[in-house]
Structures are given as C-alpha cells and as structure tokens.
Model the fold of this input.
Amino acid sequence: MNNSEILYDVLIFLVAAVVVVPAFRRLRTSPVLGYLAAGILVGPHGLAVIRDSEAAHTLAEFGVVFLLFMIGLEFSVERLRSLSRYVFGLGTLQVTITATLIGGVAWALGATEEAAIIIGGGLALSSTAFVLQLLTERGERATPFGNVSFAVLLFQDLAIVPLLMLVTLLGEGEGSFITAMGYAVAKATAALALVVGVGRLILRPTYRIIAETRSSELFVATTLLVVLGTGWLMSL
Done:
C-alpha cells in the first residue's frame, strides 16, 4: 500500500466522521456511536470505500494505544491504593462471575472446555477506551460511579494479559488448563513487573533530563518511543 492510498483512507475516515458524528450529536446520541456508524458506513460491509481494511485496523490500534496512554497519565499508585478494594474485589467478582456464566453456556452448547474458557474470559471484558470516553462525555469520570467503573475496567485490563497468553498456550496444546493458566499468569506478572521497574529506574531520570532541555520536540519524540516501544514489547 503506497502513501497516496494511506492518505486516501485517512481522508475517508475524516470525511465520514465530520458528516456522521455531528448528526449523532444533533440526535443527542453519544459521538462514540457516531464513529462506529462512520466505520460501518465506509467499511467493507458498507460502501466499501476503504481500500485496505488491514491498514485501517493498524491505524485503529494506534488510536487505542495513544488513548490508553493518555488514561495512564492520569493514573497513579495512590489512586490504585484508594480503589484497591474495587479493583481486586469488585473487578475479580465481575470477571469471574461473567466468565463462568458465559463459558458455562458456551460449554453447554457444545464448545470444548478450552474454547468455553476463552469465550467466557473474552466476553467478560469491556472496552476501556469505549467506556471511559462515554464517562468523559457525561462528566462522570471523577464521580463515585466513575471511579468504581474505572476500577473494574482496570482489573479487566490487567486480566487481558494472562488471558491472551492463555489463548496462545492452549492453542499450542501445552499441558493442562491449570498448568497453562499458571504459566500465563506468571509470564504476565513478570512482564508487568518489568514495565514498572523500567519506568521507575529508567524513564523517571530520562524524563527529568528531557525536562531540563525544555525541548517540546524531544519530549514528544521520547513519549512516542515509550508508547510504541511498550506496545511492541507486549506483543512479543
């Protein structure tokens, strides 16, 4: 796909958003639904004006990565501590109950145990980007309801790491479910610990040095490197 085709697809995205999203606002409907409608309209199952759906998917992933990065900037250890009973209490309860119910239904309908586990775990999770955008639009991010919702979403984000690793391990047929789950959790914990450790030992002093240069260009470049680099490492 050449540069002109990429630019064409980006322009189509923008035109569709400019036309559809204001219409949804006039209908007093969330702009998020407007963006979804715009994607359906120009996508392969609509007018099919997007020439490369794979490239569109890649662009969408970049958008989600940067949105979650902005959410992470508002996050702190102190906030995690204040919400810990909701994160690890209510979050655990929600994911466990939902995954068990959905997985049980899938198994009863004929799915294998491995497939039922993956289906239940996957459908127990929500879209952090989608929900937080809705909370922001309604001005509920800082309310008690918003904090509890954020806590549950945070636990879901933590749960997705071992779940993705579990999918890979079960697909490769490595041992029993308990063994695969234990290995996935251990690997995910190690990855998160590595990210936190690198952040404390390397990123903090690095950003202090960058702040001393007072260069906005250097700050943006470093931030892009951190965001995309972390996403790349987590995909390995």
Remarks:
- The longest helix spans residues 177-213.
- The mean pLDDT is 78.
